[in-house]
Write a structure and sequence with these properties.
14 helices, 3 domains, alpha/beta, 5-stranded mixed β-sheet, Tumour Suppressor Smad4
Length: 435
């Protein structure tokens, strides 16, 4: 599935995984930084770099010669800061000759990059519900197109929130089937109702069944039935599903008449089905039938180069427009592990506009667990003399009733720098103004 080409090399006695054709993908719009393929012995970054080869970025917070990447061996580079004014950061820490690896986060000034296998830019984005430009998503789209017209049952596995229903819908869209795509969450249906919901029922099948009702299988005739959380099916329902997969026949609840229909089944789980089979909680023959084609979806932390596209999509879904995300926000989002993957990312981004009426979102707008690494780094910088402490800034804001110009004058710094400190430390001058 994933076409990353990795190999292990030993540098300074440490084994390192080297990714072939590593590139840097921009996550911020500052200065419209390009996607860069790493090649050659060195590469300089800056606002007006004096050395070559170089990447020029119109970022006011970058120094003229800001940072450099230096080749150690084939496909392996070290990142160095070039005595820049605002520092160079690697995975949230100061860069001091550290090795750059796949999915590492780099920040120079207000420009944030993620290292990942370099792919040639696509001139026309494919029409697909699977958003991304990563090697993993590009390959997933190819596989969906290839298996779409097939009749094989498909089993999707992966962590929660990785987009299993979106992937199933993509396979259906490529199938050419005229029937509907019917998603079913097996874990949300009470066990006593599950058989009836799947297979339907006839009149009089149970108390209150005044008329016959179709089940999900009948609703999906000629199309695709997507069974999410398949690992939650009870054993008796598993045996009936197995018969349907093998023979394309089933009985409605309360009927002895066999029904036949053409439905393709795609199943999904975030559970370890082989372990459930070993424990006797999932039928081995059903598992074998389901995994005619098996796809494991990548976690978001394995394809951080897709963050920029996903952030745009999340903002557009919320209010049909993009918002400005500061570099601190983007870096914090990129560094976070996303245990609930894309679903969690969308929840976080769509919640921000509900909390504040603004088109510019800052570090303080993020949940504490996401903002914490950046907040702690900024506070350490303040404590070391790089900036006033948060309490010092708050005291000055209170003294000058939120007048930013007065605070800047008291500190003998530019007003823009004061605003950056406010943003980094989560201080809002408006809150200190009277009236």
């Amino acid at each position: 599935m994933n076409e990353k080409k990795n190999r292990t090399v030993t540098i300074d006695g440490i084994e390192i995984t080297a990714t072939e054709n590593l590139g840097l993908y921009p996550l911020t719009d500052t200065g419209r930084p390009p996607t860069v393929m790493l090649k050659g012995d060195s590469l300089w970054f800056g606002r007006e770099p004096s050395k070559r080869p170089s990447v020029t970025i119109a970022d006011s917070r970058m120094s003229s010669d800001h940072a450099r990447l230096e080749r150690v061996c084939a496909d392996v580079y070290r990142l160095f800061d070039a005595k820049s004014k605002n520092g160079t950061w690697h995975n949230g820490s100061a860069a001091e000759g550290v090795i750059v690896a796949d999915q590492d986060i780099l920040r120079m000034g207000n420009s944030v990059f993620v290292a990942a296998p370099y792919l040639q830019p696509v001139t026309k984005a494919p029409r697909s519900g699977l958003l991304g430009r990563s090697a993993a998503i590009v390959e997933l789209r190819r596989v969906c197109e290839r298996i779409g017209p097939a009749e094989a049952t498909v089993l999707l596995s992966g962590e929660t929130g990785t987009g299993k229903e979106v992937t199933a819908a993509e396979i259906h869209a490529r199938s050419g089937r005229s029937g509907a795509f019917v998603p079913v969450n097996c874990g949300s249906i009470p066990v006593q109702l599950l058989e009836r919901e799947l297979f339907g029922h006839v009149r009089g099948a149970y108390t209150g069944a005044a008329q016959s009702g179709e089940g999900f299988i009948e609703a999906a005739r000629g199309g695709t039935l997507f069974l999410d959380e398949i690992g939650e099916l009870p054993l008796d329902a598993q045996s009936k599903l197995l018969r349907f997969l093998a023979e394309k026949t089933y009985n409605k609840v309360g009927s002895t008449t066999l029904q036949r229909t053409d439905v393709r089944v795609i199943a999904a789980t975030n559970r370890d089905l082989p372990a459930l089979v070993a424990d006797g909680r999932f039928r081995e023959d059903l598992y074998a039938r389901l995994e005619q084609v098996k796809l494991t979806l990548p976690a978001l932390r394995e394809r951080r180069e897709d963050l920029a596209l996903l952030l745009d999509e999340a903002m557009i879904r919320q209010s049909r427009r993009r918002f400005e995300l500061t570099a601190d926000v983007v870096e914090a989002l990129a560094l976070y592990g996303w245990p609930r993957n894309v679903r969690e990312l969308f929840t976080v981004i769509q919640r921000i506009p509900l909390m504040r009426e603004t088109d510019r979102f800052e570090l303080r707008d993020l949940p504490e667990e996401i903002a914490a690494p950046l907040t702690q780094r900024l506070l350490r910088a303040a404590a070391s003399g790089g900036a006033p402490t948060k309490s010092r800034l708050a005291s000055l804001l209170k003294l000058h009733q939120g007048n930013v110009s007065a605070v800047a004058s008291a500190l003998d710094v530019d007003r823009k720098q004061v605003y950056r400190w406010f943003e980094q430390m989560g201080l809002d001058p408006v809150a200190f103004r009277k009236g």
